Fold this sequence. Notes:
It is a single chain. This protein has 381 residues and is α/β, with parallel strands linked by helices. The protein has two domains: 2-269, 7-stranded beta/alpha barrel, CATH 3.20.110.20; 288-380, no CATH class. Helices cover 48% and strands 11% of the residues. The protein has helices at 33-62, 74-82, 86-97, 113-116, 118-136, 152-160, 189-196, 211-220, 245-258, 288-294, 297-308, 310-315, 319-328, 332-335, 352-380, and strands at 2-10, 68-72, 101-103, 142-144, 165-168, 176-179, 182-186, 225-231, 262-264. Strands 1, 2, 3, 8 and 9 form a five-stranded parallel β-sheet that branches. The protein has a four-stranded mixed β-sheet with strand order 4-5-7-6, covered by helices on one side. Helix 1 links the parallel strand 1 and strand 2. Helix 13 runs antiparallel to helix 15 (352-380).
Amino acid sequence: MKKIYINFNIDESYFFKHYRVFDIGNNSDYFDIERTRNSFKDFVEKSIRPMLNIFSDISLTHKDKLKLNISITGVCLDMLEMFDFEDVIKDLKKLCDKGCIDFIVSNYYDSLSFIYSKEDFLYQVKKHEKKIKSTFDCTPIAFKNTRFFYNDEIANIVNSLGYNVILTDNKELQRYGKKLNLSVINNDSDISDLISVHFNDKQNPIWPINSEKFFKIIKQDTKEFTSLFFDTKTFGIKFTNSTGIFDFLRNIIISILDDKELELSFIKEFTVNDGKEMINIKNYKGSKDILNFNSNQIQQSAIRELYILEKQIIATENQNIIRRWRYLTHNSNFYDMMTNTEDFKENKYENPYNAYIYFMNALNDLIVNIKLNEKLKIKNN
């Protein structure tokens, strides 16, 4: 039977306050908790919860056949607890206990540490694995990096940590391959983008996209498997319930489960048996994806100053300082500084320069906190 691998990525980040230079040294609350709470509530109510309700409904009739993959960041799990959405965690655990979903490890704060700090990358991966184990009582063996970034060095590290599979999403890469003991599976973006990008696009030649058309595309795909990786916000946020996106999701999953030639599979079960080696990818130079995070001067400045502080931050042994620094490592903080567009509608802070100012003010406050912490250590000794 042809295997279908479906992964849903769940992530969220904190909104900065309008953190002013006058706040430095006087107020170390960098994030707008109320705005973050409201945004996250919207995400839960419009996207995560209705999606999980669909999975739970399908599990009642297709329990032994339903196999879906979830990659949820540590930051998002923290928010579920902090903002009193423990019922979502319980729903995820119920589906996991039934054998209907499996979890993918990532780095806890969805950071770019894999480029700038291997030590922090290892810390975040291990922290996320521990969180998944303690929350859902399962041992994940598949890995997804921030934004699916991949190269040989990441593969070597992930392989050394004992993971069996790594997910990628790069049109320049081959669909799958082997790297050491690691199986590499790439997103079939030519198919998944029909939903992620073009679901409600009237310029799309196959619009309107419905489950029957999409199922036919999957069936006609002659490849030995199909991998479909989705951002959860595609369902309910990017495309609202009124577009029919949730009916589509329910129907396409059921269609796959009811077909005698197809089966849903956990990504951890993916193995490369034909010996195909993954092509060597040494670095990210020229990658359009990474340029969204570190291509301009303000992004480069913010990232450089952030990681210059790392050793001093860790040396404080102050968990409040360390935690605030790690929240600053989230990739979206740099994405919001992207200037190579004239359309800032999706920018959280009206424009990228505000994002940079709030970020750098927060960093400067951390520097003040480092000095105060050092003085306190000396005094106590």
